[in-house]
Design a protein that fits this description.
globular, phosphoprotein, Sig_transdc_resp-reg_receiver, five-stranded parallel sheet, alpha/beta, single chain, Stage 0 sporulation protein A homolog
């Protein structure tokens, strides 16, 4: 994987180069102290990961990310800043960054974030290959096979972002969820129109295994939400998804289980979860 660093502090750029090199995270293809020069480099180099500072002279990090993603949409962006403003952080995520890291830099945190982003990039590429196989299979079965539209790609990006927030992007079932939900979206269908088992049989010779992976991923998301609620009941992710993608009563039951107030886990209805996920990503 190729890395590019944008920070007006030369010491920060040096630290990042050393960390990426010594931890065998990838190769450093370039760096710059200002956004304008960096955009020219990004257009030529198309790095896999760009690490950019939020506050820079001439061009701030958010403006840079918005422009860089138009030039190199496949590049993932990680933002650095000493600013702890929730509004600025939210704006940074809206611009398209993958993670936000607070300065001063902590080498362990930076490495952990980079490895998560590397995992996500690798998964995206795997999903792309899998979807190509599915499209080929549908084409061979007499179905029309089209190249993904920009709308489909934007939808898939929103879907991936939701799974990241739920903390399940690394789960095996997340790949199945992305493939299934994107397929439904592209064809303007819902799970109300056919059974999950019948639908999954079009993607796999073993639909029960796929359903199990999806169920495990969805259940992990429920557990993660419950933990977020216990830590901070006003957490944005908790308030956003505990009563949209999941049934709030089931999230609360899982919270009671974690607190040992109950011996029953929260329950996830997979069809409801998938339909809610599809609807949320189409309307967000």
């Amino acid at each position: 994987m190729k890395f590019y660093f944008v920070d007006d502090d030369k010491n920060i750029r040096t630290i990042l180069k050393i960390l990426v090199t010594e931890r065998n995270l990838g190769e450093c293809c370039g760096s710059s102290g200002n956004g304008d020069d960096a955009l020219e480099d990004v257009a030529a180099l198309h790095p896999d990961i760009i690490i950019v500072d939020l506050l820079m002279p001439d061009m701030d990090g958010i403006s840079f990310v918005e422009k860089a993603r138009k030039i190199s949409p496949e590049s993932a962006c990680i933002m650095l800043s000493q600013v702890a403003s929730k509004d600025l952080i939210a704006k940074a995520y809206e611009s398209g960054i993958e993670f936000f890291i607070q300065k001063p830099l902590n080498a362990i945190e930076v490495e952990s974030v980079i490895r998560n982003v590397l995992k996500t990039l690798s998964m995206h590429r795997t999903i792309g290959k899998v979807q190509s196989l599915f499209e080929t299979e549908f084409s061979e079965n007499g179905r029309q096979s089209d190249n993904p539209s920009p709308q489909s790609e934007n939808f898939q990006s929103r879907l991936t972002n939701v799974l990241q927030k739920l903390g399940i992007i690394g789960e095996l079932g997340s790949k199945d969820i992305i493939t299934l939900i994107t397929w439904l979206h592209d064809r303007s269908e819902t799970l109300e129109q056919q059974t999950l088992g019948r639908l999954l049989s079009q993607f796999s010779e073993n639909p029960k295994s796929v359903e199990q992976r999806i169920r495990r991923a969805a259940s992990t998301g429920l557990v993660n939400l419950a933990h977020l609620g216990l830590e901070d009941y006003s957490n944005d992710v908790f308030t956003e998804f505990s009563n949209t993608l999941y049934n709030f009563e089931q999230v609360r039951r899982e919270m009671d289980y974690i607190r040992r107030k109950s011996d029953k886990h929260g329950n996830v209805k997979i069809r409801s979860f998938l339909n809610a996920l599809l609807s949320y990503c189409e309307n967000v």
